[in-house]
Amino acid sequence: MRELHRQRRFATFRSVMALMLREMSTTYGRSPVGYLWAVLQPVAGIILLTLVFSLFLRWPPIGKSFMMFYATGIIPFLFYTEISMKLATSVQFSRQLLAYPSVTVVDALLARFVLNVMTQFLVAFILFGAFMMIDETDAAVDFPAVALGFAMAARLIGIVCIGLVLAAIFFARI
To answer: What CA–CA distance (Å, rounded) separates 66 from 140?
Structure first.
């Protein structure tokens, strides 16, 4: 019994890793330029908001930096929305692979979740670091609080999973 559990765990690990590699190659392409888009998208939004509001206002509502003010709102928002959208379509994205007995729905959800959390966390780390160097803010970073905030946002993804289950139940009865 214990050996069977160990084999399933290894099969899950292999399936998740294979699905993650597939997701990386289809979403971001086969070159690092694809990942550049993941960084440029929030940068464009933050710069646009910074330019527009700096024309009308002298200071942001909190702090001295428009870039950091908007980054602290846009980056967590994109963290949640990107991951929830990817998870919501994970079963459809991996439908053909779910025909194999070693690939389960949980593997598809887990693969997309892990890859997108790591990607969005890396994007947030790069952007916050860059904005802190560019603007020379006097912000004191509380890393445990930041990690807790990202963990809480990632846990909200459970709502998406509940929605997937409810949709599967609802559409199975139609």
So the answer is: 17
pTM for this one? Answer: 0.80
Number of H helices, E strands in the chain: 7, 0
Cα 68-74-75 angle, rounded to 5 deg: 85
Q: Are 19 and 100 in contact (CB under 8 A)?
A: no
pLDDT over 80 (residue 167): no
Full residue range of the structural domain in which residue 121 is found: 2-173
pLDDT at residue 5 tops 60? no
d(CA 99, CA 85): 23
Output 2-11 pairs: Cβ under 8 A, ≥24 positions apart.
11/102
Tokens 């809480």 correspond to what residue?
Answer: 152
Residue 12: other Cβ atoms inside 10 A: 17
Is the pLDDT at 120 greater than 50, yes or no?
yes
Q: How far apart are CA 141 and CA 89, in angstroms?
A: 34
Each residue's pLDDT tens digit, 41-50? 888 888 888 8
Domain count, the chain: 1
